[in-house]
Amino acid sequence: MAIQITSLQNPRIKEMIRLRDGRHRRKQGRILIDGLREIERAMQTGVGPSELVYCPQLCGEASVRGILTKAEELGAELIEVSGQVFEKLAFGARAEGVVAVAPTPRASLTDLSLERDALVVVLEGVEKPGNAGAVLRSADASGAGAVIVADGRTDLFNPNAIRASLGTIFTVPVAEASSGETLAWLRERGFAVFAARVDGSIVYTEADYRGGAAIVLGSEAEGLTDAWSGEGVQPVRLPMLGVADSLNVSVTAAVILYEAVRQRG
Q1: Distance, CA of 225 to CA of 227 (rounded, Å)
Q2: Are residues 244 and 138 in the same domain?
Q3: pLDDT value at position 48?
Q4: Per-residue pLDDT tens digits for 35-58
Q5: Could you tell me if 160 and 232 lie in one domain?
Q6: CB atoms < 10 A from the CB of 196, how many?
Q7: Are 55 and 128 members of one domain?
């Protein structure tokens, strides 16, 4: 049975609202998961919510009965709230009337267990959570084994990143580390490393992505740091035939990932 909360001054609601801020997510060790599909994918992969908040006026209790039942089975407390309260918790315009609070998933290199021929995506210095989420979507679609955020400048589990990933942040293994740690980890495991650069020495289609391969992408503003220009790192480029000198990082990721899929198929 759900408890009902209608006041924005309720202490539990105040703590949940604070989870919109990255500092409080780190402090509390909890995240907000906004949206039906995202919550379902989190629960399917073992990220069980501690609380599930829903607004009947926005979602209709009957339409979300399945997700409420599943969350309750996993030990979540159901909390019915007013539209005013829910508005303070939800992100963006796609309000589906359901938000979950869950423990922050572990995301370290030591948690990754990959096949030797896995395809890995590395994002260095990513700043926009939406871009990180979109890359995760492409990684999931192309069967990548993991996404590693190196020296990230945004919270990997920012609700906007979760939304942009369509919940695939819970289906694709993820990790956060420094660029140095990430490169050492890849070399230790024998991965071929391909760094996407506007001045790459070869076109991306000329690289061989068969076997264990890591595709490394930098921020649109600054590109990759010198950590990814050393021995054993192959710079690749996408042909740019117009006035723009680069693509959105998520588009670049999708283009190279699907070339890797073509080769590995």
Answers
A1: 5
A2: yes
A3: 92
A4: 899 999 999 999 999 999 999 888
A5: yes
A6: 25
A7: no
The residues pairing with 148 across neighbouring beta strands, listed in sequence order, are: 122, 175
Residue at a domain's end among 70, 103, 136: 103
Residue 251's nearest CA partner among 87, 122, 131 is 131
Single residue among 74, 103, 132 that ends a domain in this structure: 103
Same domain, 120 and 245: yes
pLDDT of amino acid 56:
87
pTM: 0.92
Q: Over the chain, what is the mean pLDDT?
A: 93
**116, 75: one domain:** no
CB atoms within 10 A of CB 3: 11
Contact by Cβ (8 Å): 88, 8: yes
Residues 194-214 pLDDT 10s: 999 999 999 999 999 999 999
Q: Which two tokens stand for residue 75?
A: 């030990």
Structural domains of the chain, count: 2
Domain harbouring 135, CATH code: 3.40.1280.10
Q: What's the CA angle centered on 212, arms 206 and 214, to 5 degrees?
A: 65
CA–CA separation, 220 and 248 (whole Å): 7
Structure token pair of residue 151: 């020296």
Please indicate, yes or no, whether residues 72 and 121 belong to a single structural domain of this protein. Answer: no
